[in-house]
Amino acid sequence: MIQERLCKLRNSMQAAGMDCYLIPTSDYHDSEYVSSFFMVRKYFSGFTGSAGTLVVTKDEAALFTDGRYFIQAAKELAGTEIKLMKMGEPGVPTISQYLEMVLKEGENLGFDGRVVKADDAKNYEEILSKKHGKIIWDKDLAEEIWEDRPALLHHPVSILEECYSGESASSKIERVREKMKAEGANVHILTSLDDIAWLFNIRGNDVESCPVVLSYVVVTMDEVLLFAKEKEKQSRSEDGSDEIWTKELCQYLEENGIKLCFYEDFYAYVSQIHGKKVLLCKGRANCRLIKELCEDVTVIDRPNPTTLMKAVKNQTEMENLRKAHLWDGAAVTHFMYWLKKNVGKISMTEVSASAYLEGLRETYDHFIEPSFSTICAYGANGAIAHYSAKEDACEEIRPEGMLLVDSGGHYLEGSTDITRTFILGSISKEMKEHFTLVLRALLNLKNARFLHGCRGVNLDIMARQVLWEKGLDYKHGTGHGVGYLLSVHEGPNSFRWKLLPDYQDNAVLEEGMVTTDEPGIYIEGSHGIRLENELLCRKDEANEYGQFMHFEDLTCVPFDLDGVEVSLLTDVDRRNLNAYHKEVFEKLEPYFEGEELEWLREVTREI
Fold first, then answer.
1. What pLDDT does 86 receive?
2. DSSP alpha helices (H): ranges in 343-365?
3. Structural Rg of the chain based on CA atoms
4. Which segments in the chain show pLDDT lower than 50?
5. Which of 55, 76, 205, 449 has the greatest number of C-beta atoms within 10 Å?
6. Is the bond preceding residue 492 a cis peptide, omega within 30 degrees?
7. Model pLDDT for residues 522-536, shown as the tens digit of each residue
8. 298 pairs with which residues across the strands?
9. For 242-314, where are the alpha helices, taking DSSP H only?
10. 402 alpha carbon, distance to own chain's centre
11. DSSP 46-85
């Protein structure tokens, strides 16, 4: 099937004058997760991971993905002609280097400019110019090949009330305009969906597990345009409302000075901007947007002002997040109790266990949906960092080994992301050592105290060094920023030791930023261990040396002490672990009673 699709793609490439075609994992808005309409790379390659780029030439095909997906991609590409390019590994070219290698003199590169970032397209264009070729950026070849392609759907939109957001849309817009003035811009174009949802305090369901609204925004000093309405759903009502943009929503937009426009009219509007200084982020904007701008437009390439604004949670958001994590922690801890009491006694699989956990989260009134697809990986599947169990292809969970569960929820009070690895029976000495190392790594980072001005790249070593001392590592960042009822992976803050040239999520850690702490060890064919807490950055004391900072734990779930080799813990590790478990018990005690409460007391005991 994949070979047949690649053959059709190559025929379309030839007809369009393309010698090479590039398909990233993206939508028109640089979203991390994409709706089924945009799963073009998956359609042509069979690879189901959430990150990767397929490059197809007349003679070969290559799939580029990162260390989270090496094992998964190798399995899913088996039996196809597609070569796996393990990004970041020695001897493996980057996408740009690969294009330089495979493109011959005078050959052309094609892609859909709406799903390729402007910065990347510029880089590709420079490569082609050296070879006297060109990029063809206005062709989505999937349109003519993918016969049963899912529709691009718009879903109902809701208002996030100020008791949850902590700031009005009009206040946020004014802050953006102040930033525009500081940058000397009179127009700001915003295309990233999480930024738009945050700016206007609206939420939707147009991207799986990310409550955003398919839209574009243009802000000037006089008006705010929201391109989000579907033309084919033009309302017949006199007030202009429809089933998505209700009368209440339209009134809300009007009160905040926001004009609702058709989603499909965005590029036509952009092409009519003349002589303006336009603030936008080329690292988030797509190629077509830049190509549509007139030559007399001056582009001010800066990070979107909203990116940093939304990363720094206000007091209302911080207090709400504490509530969300308390409910979420209770749900996951109840799951831990159920799992350890019932494994081997009742039938359970990776899929049924995931469903049980989701059911526990659903008992809380303000729970909306999972914040991402749960990773429930038993045994050797835990070594696949972003494993995805399927109903017809999943493991039965048995009373032995380990179960890795990475999950989260969207609540009106915010988003959660937590990983725990549970011990279900006998494990090897190596597994217990690895579990303890991962726990030590997490504890080291979450208890860090540092001066303001530090970035995630300065602190990553506090987790990773514990593993490096043993000649071990993990092929992913130690942590990522988390949005407020938005994307669970959200910059500009992160923890990682190695920054790629185009990597943007390396901001100074500010009070109010939420970042995950999630080290791991993955042994292919044997086991995988990951532990994850969310950390809220807070101010500590200020003295003659500067402003000190620390992290507040948001996540409230025990670590499985059955996996801990106490002899490998330092005195500091034990103090930190005991202090965390004491806090977990005190916070969760009201949610447990009887036998479950005694169990909670036992699993949070001092060691």
1. 94
2. 350-361
3. 25
4. 235-236
5. 55
6. yes
7. 999 999 999 999 999
8. 277
9. 247-255, 266-270, 287-292, 305-311
10. 25
11. ----SS-EEEEESS-EEEEE-GGGHHHHHHHHTTSSPEEE
